[in-house]
Amino acid sequence: MDAALAQAFEETWPAAEYVDAGGFRLGRGLGAGGRVSSARAVGPWKPDDIARVEAIHRGWDQPPMFRVLDGDAALIAALTAAGYRRETPTAIMQAPVALLTGQTIPVLTTFAIWPPLAIQRDIWAAGNIDPMRQAVMDRVSGPRTAILGRIDDRAAGAAFAAIAAGVAMVHAVEVLPAFRRRGLAGWMMRQVAQWAADRGATRIGLAVSRANGGARATYDRLGFTEVAGYAYYAKDL
User: Fold this and answer.
1) Are 198 and 151 in contact (CB under 8 A)?
2) With contact defined as beta carbons under 8 Å apart, do 168 and 204 qualify?
3) Are 68 and 75 in contact (CB under 8 A)?
4) What span, in angstroms and rounded, lies between the C-alpha atoms of 73 and 41?
5) SS3 assignment, position 73
6) Which pLDDT band holds residue 237 (cuts at 50, 70, 90)?
7) Over the stretch 124-154, which tens digit does the pLDDT of each residue have?
8) Which of the chain's ends, N or C, has fewer CB atoms near its CB within 10 Å?
9) How many Å separate Cα 180 from the centre of its chain?
């Protein structure tokens, strides 16, 4: 990832607290998932730093976890030797905002709203984006919005987007199961693009699990390209 995309990736989905341990920066997630509860390399690290990270995680009562870019062979080897297991391989993708703003969105299909409506919070909760994960959205300091998607005259999708360093990152994309595979996620991404363009952003970024083939196919069709990948390396408390 380039510096702007990396900055947006972190700042638009922030942990409740950060602490540095040697060459690693740890997030305190307060139950909001691996993205905000993991440690990542931010500088030269030593093998002893891994144990320091573990101690801080345990003090926070969260499982020791590292977020590691796919190409970081040295850290992957060190964590594997220390008993960590690989989880949730993920692709980071991006697209130019201009690529997604050339098609008119059908009337009453999508809206950009802040703060989120109760129905958006219900849709997120139905997709395991619980109140602890939703609390991450409230910590974002820059421009942010909640996307509402509608189909068959009812609310059926929700997503969160925020801007940092000229990049609009999209998180928490959820479409209710009964309304999937009907193009709603694509229209929601185009709504993000319109909102982002109005605020001067030039790129849209997102992360998608490599196991989620349906979402990946949607983003491929929209013109997103993969620029990096990562996985979590976790150990039980």
Assistant:
1) no
2) yes
3) yes
4) 12
5) helix
6) confident
7) 999 999 999 999 999 999 999 999 999 999 9
8) C
9) 20
Q: Tell me the two tokens of residue 47.
A: 């093998």
SS3 call for 190: helix
In the chain, helix, strand, coil percent, each to 5? 35, 35, 30
Neighbours of 85 (CB within 10 A): 12
Name the CA radius of gyration of the chain, rounded.
Answer: 18
Hunting for tokens 């991450």 — which residue is that? 136
Give the total residue count for the chain. Answer: 237
Q: Which of 200, 210, 207, 212 is nearest to 227 (CA)?
A: 207
pTM beyond 0.70: the answer is yes
Q: How far apart are the C-alpha atoms of 26 and 57, rounded to whole Å?
A: 8
Please give the structure tokens belonging to residue 75: 């850290």
